[in-house]
Amino acid sequence: MKPTSLQSFKLTIKPLNPPKSIAEIRSIILNTPNIKGKETGLSVNHEIKSKSIIDTKNKNIKLKSKLNTLQKKNSNITKHFFNDIYEKFNAMYMAPTVVELNKVNSFFNNCGVQFEWSAPKYSDIPLKPTPRLKPLSLHLPEVAFLGRCNSGKSTLLNNLVTRASVKRDLNPLARASKIAGYTKTINSFNIENKLKIIDTPGYGVKGTKEQGIATMEYLQKRKNLKRTYILIPIDSGFTIYDSQIINFLGENGIPFEIIFTKMDKLFKLYGQNLDSDHNTQVIAKLNDMIVNSEVDKLPTLPQLLFVNSVINKKIDKRYGIDKIRYSILQACGII
Ligand SMILES: Nc1nc2c(ncn2[C@@H]2O[C@H](COP(=O)(O)OP(=O)(O)OP(=O)(O)O)[C@@H](O)[C@H]2O)c(=O)[nH]1
Ligand SMILES: [Mg+2]
Q1: Nearest ligand atom owner, CA of 179
Q2: Which tops the pLDDT comparison, 256 or 300?
C-alpha cells in the first residue's frame, strides 16, 4: 500500500484508550482536525520529534508553530514563483504596488455583480435599458475575455469576483464546464455599477461560425470596450486560432493582454516545491511559447499575466488574480 504522508511521520505514539487513528491523534495534538500533511505541503520525510502524544501545552504550541512555518515556506515558494514570472515577462510595465493590489482586491472582494444580458448575435445586444440593464449601466467601460473553447474564460470571471480566502467553490456567476464550447452567447456582467466584464463564446475547433462572427462584430463595433484579454491555457499554449485573433485585434487597433490560465497544471509536472531549477525550466518553457507565438514581435508587447483558477492537491491557493484585477480596473480608468 502506498504510504500516505501522515503514515510517514515518525510519531512515537502511546496508544490512548480506546485506540485512535493517526489522523485523530494528530488532530488532538494540533487541535486542527482538517490539516493533512499532503494538503499543507509538508515534506513526507519530515520528522516530528515528539516523544509522546500527551504532552505539555508548550509542546503543542511548538508543533503548531513548526507546521505553520513549513506551510508558510511552501506557500511562499508558490507566491514567489508567480511574482518571479510576472516580473520576468513584464519588465517594461510598472508592477502594481502592494497598496494598489490591496485596493483592487478590496474592490472585487466586496463588489456587487449582476448578470445583464446574453446575446447570440451582435444585434441582440440591448442598446436601451431593460429590467436588468439599468440606464446608468449603458455607458460603463467594459473588458472582454477571449480565448479558445475551454481556455477558462467563464471560470476566470468567477474567480475574479470570488474572495481569495474562498478555498472551494467559486462564485458561480458564469457557467463553466469541462465540455468545450459551453458558452454559446456573448454575456455581460455588471460589476458594482462601475464596469462590465464580457464573457464570450470560445473559438477554435468547437466554436461555431455564427459565434465567431458575433464576437468579431462585437470587438469591432463596441464603443465602450476598453481592453480585451486573450486566455491561453498553459498546458496547450498558443494555437493557430490564437494567432488569428491576435492578428485581428492588431489590425483593428483593439488593445489586448494575454493571460496564461491553468497554471496549476505546471505543478503536476514539477511538483509544488518549484525550486530555482524548475523555476528556470518553466521560464524557459514560457519564453519558447512566447517567441514561437511571435507576440514578442508586436509593436507593443502585451502584458503577460498568469493565473490558476482551480485549487487542487498541488496548489493550495488561487494565484495571479490580483494582477488581473489591477489590469482590468486600470483599463477602465477606475484605478
Ligand atoms: N486545472 C484547471 N482547470 C481550469 C482552470 N480554469 C478553468 N478550468 C477548467 O477548464 C474547463 C473549462 O473552463 P471554462 O471556464 O468553462 O472555459 P471557457 O473558456 O469558458 O470555455 P467555453 O465556454 O467552452 O468557451 C472547466 O472544466 C474548468 O474547471 C484552471 O485554472 N485550472
Ligand atoms: Mg465559457
Answers
A1: 1
A2: 256
